[in-house]
Amino acid sequence: MINYFQLLGYALIPAATMTLAGIWATLRVPGENTRSALMHFAAGVVFAVVAVEFLPDLVHEHSVLATAVGFTLGTAAMLGVRLWSETRAKKNLEKSETASGSLIVATAVDIVVDGLMLGIGFAAGAKQGILLTVALAFELISLGLAVALELKQGRISRGRILSSIIALSGLFIFGAVAGSAALSLISGALLAGVIAFGAAALLFLVTEELLTEAHEVAENPLLTSAFFVGFLAVFLLELLS
Known about the structure:
Elements (H helix, E strand, L loop, with lengths): L3 H24 L4 H30 L2 H28 L4 H29 L1 H28 L4 H26 L4 H27 L6 H20 L1
Helix pairs in contact: 1-5, 1-6, 2-5, 2-7, 2-8, 3-4, 3-7, 4-5, 4-6, 4-7, 5-6
């Protein structure tokens, strides 16, 4: 049985990190290397959570068809979200207000999915949920920075930027609670399919979002090592537990 008060408490952590990152970006623009290091570290943490927690659960369930269907649907869903957001952004490229609105809508979809991933994590087990909380906290730092800086470049007022960030953070909490409520009603092969869906979505987040954006900055060994530090941190936590 999922403890919703516990879930809410953990969901507040990534939401808070996103809000604080947004405040930071509105007051002072962080350096490119700082943002890249955070994204590398977040990618390593998320990748480790999938490898250490999600995949062993799928092997244990041994539901081949459910896993294949869930993973395929997860990949298709994330590709669909990306295609939709890119198409919308291209249509509104020359209108800063409309483009900003498109950015917020696309980010909102992404954040609800992230919230659902946390819900899936807690449905799979408390330990998985806690590790995923850490991973998503770092991921939402980078997302909060990106959204705030993008809106700032569009000459959006500081008040509107902060209110947008807070609203997006609230969507993450909503996604986590709604996802857990729905997933608490299922088990067995269906749960395996949902976990596979989440694993695919998280791998997409690592390879097509976090690392892609992190590599927009000229690479150096220190930045690259942040990915492996994040992975090792989660792996060691798993060994210690």
